[in-house]
Amino acid sequence: MGRHFSLFYTQEDIVQGKPDYELKKAASEGQFEDEGWRIRKDRSRFWANVIITAMRGSSGELLGFSKVTRDFTERKKSEEAIRLNEERFRSLSNFLRTRSS
Known about the structure:
By secondary structure, this protein is an alpha+beta fold.
């Protein structure tokens, strides 16, 4: 609380201006959603789904932002395991097809 939200971003994303870009998009479009690597308080990385929403006053002035971050690390690991298994299956299928020819 009270610290800039960029502390949750990787150094690479900070250098590329990603936190500022996301705020600008949320301000101009009302909301911004993204998935990518983020940094925990203990400095470990996790795969996150992030939604940033612009908060506006009754006359439309930008008051600030709301941000929801969900840890999707386990989902990302599962998707990667499925992808690797599909690649292995395709490789095995190709190998068996060429042997039987």
